[in-house]
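Quick question: what would this complex look like in 3D?
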Amino acid sequence: MSGRIPVARWGIYFFLLGAALFFLLPAYVMLVTSLKSMDEIRLGRIFALPGLLTAEPWISAWSGACTGLNCEGIRGGFWNSVAIAIPSTVLPILLGALNGYALSFWRPRGSQTLFAVLMAGAFIPAQVMMYPLIQILAALGIFGSLVGIVLVHTIFSMPVMTLLFRNYYVSIPTELFHAARIDGGGFYRIFFELVLPMSVPIVTVAAIMQITGVWNDYILGLVFAGREHLPMTVQLNNIINTTTGTRLYNVNMAATILTSLVPLAVYFASGRWFVRGITAGALKG
Amino acid sequence: MADIKISDLRIGYANTTVIEGLDLEVMDGEFLVLLGPSGCGKSTLLHGIAGLQDVAAGTIAIGGVDMTHADPTDRNIGMVFQSYALYPTMSVERNMSFSLRVKGFSRQEIARRVERAAQMLQLTELLQRKPAQLSGGQRQRVAIGRALVRDAGVFLFDEPLSNLDAQLRTELRRELKLLHKRLGTTMVYVTHDQVEAMTLASRIVVMRAGHIEQIGTPGDVYARPNNLFVASFLGAPAMNMLGGTLVAAHDGAIALKLQGGKVGLSGYAFLDAPQAAREVVLGLRPESLHLDPAGPFEGTVVLVEPMGNHSVLSIDWAGQHLSCLLPGGEAPALESVLRFAIDTTQISLFDRYTERRL
């Protein structure tokens, strides 16, 4: 081996670089537009760098833009999304892990059927269940509340979370579980002291999937969260669709970037885990 | 310490029955080895004793208490698995103390017991390590230690040495035997390795297809196998099997007619009175065939396998193949013609059709 990169490899690098630039182009346009003043945007040169940098659109998007009638920016939506995403990540992971653990190790009577039904649930579109769910939550008195939206996210994530953890636990030798049974561990003792500490990799994957999924959700937040807890995505839509006079492209762009910042940060921070996450969740796509 | 009484046990999965109508008694303090080929139900039986496998019918009593449906942890047992089954996120010390912590023992008592077990198994220096930082032999010792700290009445071993390399296996086998001598605890040990069975057991249970074929001391099972299966399963090199017929000699004595000649059976202890003309299989251990210049039979050496302290000869005897174990380092040359005798006090005779010992 000479250590030199063969010509064919250069071709591949060249192609990949070109593709990356092409797909980064919209992000570039968003970023530069968000840093321009409206006067500059009206010139129509969307690829040009801003002549005069301004942070004004970002400040406005965060704390001044109008979502419907109130003009308090997207700030409130951000904290709403945080308040929804944290319990909607912790709870489904705990329950999914518990489900997967029970299904792979304890195998109670009928567990195979239960698993099949749960998997079938993964293929039914959320929209079909929307109306009955609204009725149920209304009857329970938690429609349009934080508890309600967290519950809905938990329900809809159950098939994928269960599948994820079950498949992970299937690869753990049953002998380990048997040893713990002989040592006297009960259902929860074995789960919390033995199984959960072994689940760090899959919990990471599940957390990534759940945070990005919940953060990017629009329809469930719109329907179930109620006025007080509308997530960032819904407020973003309100900002962009509320037009009084001119469309503030720079503010819209800044608000959009702000909204996608959390998933982006998760992508960058978790690198290889994320790839595992999307392949593990390939069932739902 | 405890004995085990199993009666009329049936264990099955959804549609298949693995074990049916099995009776077995394990005496207090004995080292019982369940031996058999894979799929014979020996592991299932062990899991049944441990309570890890549901029992369909019959009873299991441990230490005189009916434990048929008791929880594994209430059975007063410790178990060691083939894959070690150590808790990967816990240190050696926490692995060993897990059961004691669950049962709520005091800190001092836990420390005392772990220390004692660690000393016995030479694990004291490794107590703070994680299982991933241990070698295979060390891991299995930790697994044994985990069973040890519980002061269980019965130890169950599920092929504990199968994942180790040959040298380590021999070493740990020795340690296990010493441990049993020292503790005197009842041990039930599952293996498909006949060497482990022979060296460790006070009694061997040979199993096939969910049934017990024979129970006996290693010497007994080896020298007097009940049937063709047990005979062929035990022993390396395997027992020679030769088809023949029983014939009555002039004086009324029974002899065995084989392809290579007649063998007098005056030295053989028949279970029932023998009948002439019965078709039988002669089971001949390679070491019961003695080279003897004055011997009545003659064969040709076709292969010599030197093993250092002994050699295994393959002898062609009138078209039939015989293995012969020859002690000492020197072996006859290939193609040489040898005379030999058969020690009829050490042979086994089986009915050709029922495959049972005669």
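Answer marked as accepted. Chain A touches chain B at residues 173, 175-176, 178-185, 189, 193-194, 197-198 (CB under 8 Å).
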